[in-house]
Amino acid sequence: MMISNRFSQLLLTLGLLTVLISQPLVAETIEAKLPSGIIASAELHVGKPGLPMIVLIHGFMQTREFPTVNRLAEGLGSAGYSTLSPTLSLGISRRARSLPCEAIHRHTLEQDVAEIDFWMDWIARHKPGPVVLVSHSYGSLQSLLYASNKPSAALRQVIALSLVDAERQAPSLTVNTMLGDAKKRIARGDKELVSYPFGYCKKYVSTPQGFYSYAHWTRADILQLSRKSKVPLEVVMGGGDDRMGEDWPEKLRTIGNHVQVIAGANHFFDAEHEFEVLDLTLSLLNSSREKK
C-alpha cells in the first residue's frame, strides 16, 4: 500500500502540528534497577484511560531521544495514548547518550530483549492494561524476538518501523568470515575485544559474544522470526529507505506479513514523512482496537 496523496497529507500535517504545539506533554522519568544492578531509565507519559500503553523501542545504540521514536512518542501522547520510552542500557547505568561505534560494546542482543521484558513486567505491576510495542530499525528485531518467545499476556500488537534487512549490512562473504572468527573465539572462551565492520560502523569494538549476537541474523532468520510472533505484526517501511534491499518489503509480504510502505520516506521517516508515519501508526492502533 503506497501513501501519496500530498494535498490530504498537507492538511493532516497542519492538523497534527497544531495538536503537537497546542498540547505540550507532561512526562516523568522512571528509573528502575535491572537484575544486573544497572539502573535503567524510561520516560513515562500517562494518557487517557481505556487506550493501550505504547512502548517505544529505539534503534541500535541510540536512546529514547532519537528523533524517530521521540517524535512518535510526542505525537502518540498528544493523541491521548500513554507512552513508555525506555533507553536500553547497553550495560551502562542511566545511559543518556548514543554510543559511538568505537566505544567498547560488551552488551548483547539478548540483554536488550531482556530489558524489553523487564519494562513489560514493570508496566504489568504499575500500569496494567493492554500494551503495543512500536519499534524502529534494530529495535524492531528486538521487539520481534520478544514477541516470538514468551511475551506478556498484555501485549496486543507489534508495529515494526524500518524492520532491518540484515543482509544489507555488509557483503555476505565478509560477514561469514567475521562470524566464523567470532564463533571460534566464543568456542574457546575468548572474551578479548575484537573490531569488525558492522552495520553503519566501520569499526565496531565488542566482545566476540556481543558481536555475534547482533551480526549473525540473516534475512531467512528474520522472516522466520516474523512468522513466530505471538501477536499481530504490522511492518512499516520507507519507500526511499536505501538501507534496505529494494525487494525487502515484498519478501516480508510473501510469507504473509502485512507491510505498508510510505512513499519517499527514508529509514528515519524524517522531514514531512514524520507526520505520515504518525498518522499511519495511529491508524494501525485504531484498526487493532476495532478488531477486538
Element-by-element helix/strand order: EHEEEHEHEHEHEEHHEHEH
Provide a count of the helices. Answer: 9
- The chain-level mean pLDDT equals 91
Q: What is the CATH domain class of the largest domain? A: Alpha Beta
Query: What is the third-level CATH name, the topology of the largest domain?
Result: Rossmann fold
| Count of the domains | 2
Overall, the morphology is: globular
The radius of gyration is 19 Å
Superfamily (CATH H level) name of the largest domain: Alpha/Beta hydrolase fold, catalytic domain
How many β strands by DSSP? 11
Our measurement of the CA-to-CA distance between the termini, rounded to an integer number of angstroms, reads 23 Å
State the share of residues found in helices, binned by percent.
40-55%
Report a brief summary of the structure.
The protein is built from 9 helices and 11 strands.
Key descriptive features of the protein:
292 residues; two-stranded antiparallel ribbon; Rossmann fold; 9 helices; nine-stranded mixed beta sheet
What do these coordinates show?
- This protein is of the alpha/beta class and 292 residues long.
- It folds into 2 domains: 203 residues, Rossmann fold (3-Layer(aba) Sandwich); 50 residues, no CATH class.
- The protein has 9 helices and 11 strands.
- It has a 9-stranded mixed β-sheet with strand order 1-11-10-7-6-4-5-3-2, sandwiched between helices.
- α2 packs across α9, α3 packs across α4 and α5 packs across α6.
- The two termini are 23 Å apart.
